[in-house]
Design goal:
By secondary structure, the protein is α/β, with parallel strands linked by helices. The chain contains 19 helices and 13 strands. Strand 9, helix 12 and strand 10 form a beta-alpha-beta unit. The longest helix is centred in the middle third of the chain and has 18 residues.
């Protein structure tokens, strides 16, 4: 195989233990499952005894000026002691038309890598290839070029919008070079992973399109090198809600809701999430007027949906639900409805919120579709309807109305058992084990990676 572009070690054998973790991500307060995943990976690393843990993200003023959906700042739970959230500013002035944040974040990563020198290996992970993969590779290659022992391994996690947005749009417009840049940067990481098997197949298909035009071999390399790493979830936050019924009742009372008597949608409010279909199905179902439909979240489709509901007293919108309240609302609902459907701008590649609801328990089942990677999140332990099919969704709502509590409890139990595989400690441990087994910088001096407790035991 030709030179992959991965870093080659020079000089002495590097420290065998990973003691530092840096994650580059669109972090809180952005409403996105992967901001939550970054938090969970950081917390899992803290539990393993990592010495330095940094989440590197964007300045708050940049986020507030963007169209990205944000949580209220006062609703974001604090990170544990020992986890730093860095928000480096831009580099350059008005004469630099773009990339000022890229240089600011890349430069900050280099500063951290120098800070961690001699203190164990660093795992540097980016969630979203664009632009975070470029930031990470720029920083690591600059650092490695001036350092005898870089002692850093890179992990790239490709998420839905990397492929269904960036790469697919590049290919649609005939910009094959832009698609090649994304894919080649992805493979230059020591450990490229995708959030689901569905996502991996999308990536391979994109590689095939690029190969057909540029005569490259991306598809083969993607099949061989890309692993699956499902999003990391703090399972205990949700599974312990069973023992917090007073908190559940208080949260519902605050919103004027009653346990097991409301339908819940909670996610980003965009067209691909299918909330318009949910409103139409609700209006046509036997549950209309019996139970309110609660729509929680913010996003670019929210004004249009509020206009569609036109003041219907049975449809409630809450745009201020924070981290603590989310699980309580999921636990108390009669059903969590997630009618995601494929659209040109976005296709669900996993469905983190679905898995969170399954972990949160309660009698309410998940009602969702088989769009994209959602079946990998549910394992089929849900009520399914055809994506974009309002009548089929109405029928699932009516089916819910006929189910006994025993049937609901049995389905909820199977759903929770399945979702436990997404526990953050398991996900992080699996990533580190893959690094230990060989997905580390290419060189004759490749060494095993051990967890902090293994290093100390040795």
């Amino acid at each position: 195989m030709a030179d992959s572009g991965k870093i080659a070690w020079r000089g002495a054998r590097p420290d065998e233990s990973i003691r530092n973790l840096i994650i580059v991500v669109r972090a809180d307060p952005i409403i996105c499952g992967h901001s939550t995943e970054a938090r969970n990976l950081a917390e899992a690393a803290r539990a393993l005894g990592f010495e330095n843990i940094h989440i590197v993200s964007y300045p708050l003023d940049v986020l507030e000026a963007s169209p990205l959906p944000l949580k209220p700042l006062d609703s974001v739970l604090p990170y544990s002691e020992g986890i730093a959230v860095d928000r480096p500013g831009t580099v350059g002035d008005y004469k630099v038309l773009d990339c000022r944040l890229l240089y600011g974040i890349s430069g900050h990563l280099v500063d951290l890598l120098y800070q961690f020198q001699g203190r164990g290996r660093t795992a540097l992970m980016d969630l979203y290839l664009v632009p975070h993969g470029q930031m990470v590779l720029s920083a690591v290659h600059s650092f490695a070029g001036t350092t005898q022992n870089p002692n850093v391994s890179t992990i790239a996690e490709a998420v839905g919008s990397d492929i269904t947005n960036v790469v697919s749009n590049a290919l649609k417009d005939g910009k094959f070079g832009a698609a090649q840049i994304v894919l080649s940067n992805y493979l230059r990481h020591d450990l490229p992973v995708a959030v689901s098997e569905y996502t991996k197949q999308l990536i391979i298909e994109s590689g095939e399109e690029v190969d057909a035009v540029l005569k490259t071999n991306f598809a083969q390399r993607l099949r061989e090198e890309v692993g699956i790493s499902y999003p990391a979830i703090d399972t205990s936050t949700y599974t312990t809600i069973d023992h917090r019924q007073d908190d559940v009742r208080a949260a519902l009372a605050k919103r004027g809701l009653h346990q097991d008597n409301y339908l819940l949608f909670l996610s980003r409010v965009v067209k691909a999430k299918g909330v318009d279909d949910l409103i139409d199905a609700y209006w046509a179902s036997n549950l209309y007027g019996q139970q309110p439909l609660v729509i929680c979240g913010t996003g670019i489709a929210l004004p249009e949906l509020k206009e569609k509901a036109a003041g219907d007293p049975h449809i409630l919108f809450f745009d201020d639900v924070g981290d603590e309240e989310k699980g309580l609302l999921m636990h108390g609902c009669s059903a969590y409805v997630f009618p995601s459907k494929p659209r040109p701008e976005f296709t669900e590649t996993f469905g983190i919120a679905v898995a969170e609801k399954m972990l949160a328990g309660g009698l309410g089942p998940v009602i969702t579709t088989r769009t994209g990677g959602i079946p990998e999140a549910t394992g089929g332990h849900c009520l399914e309807h055809a994506a974009g099919h309002v009548t089929d969704l109405r029928d699932r709502l009516n089916q819910l109305d006929r189910m006994s509590n025993e049937e609901k409890a049995e389905l909820a139990g199977r759903a929770r058992e399945f979702a436990m595989r997404f526990d953050r400690a398991h996900v992080l441990g699996s990533l580190l084990e893959r690094l230990r087994q060989g997905a580390v910088p290419q060189a004759a001096q490749r060494s095993a990676v051990t967890l902090p407790e293994q290093a100390e035991a040795g």
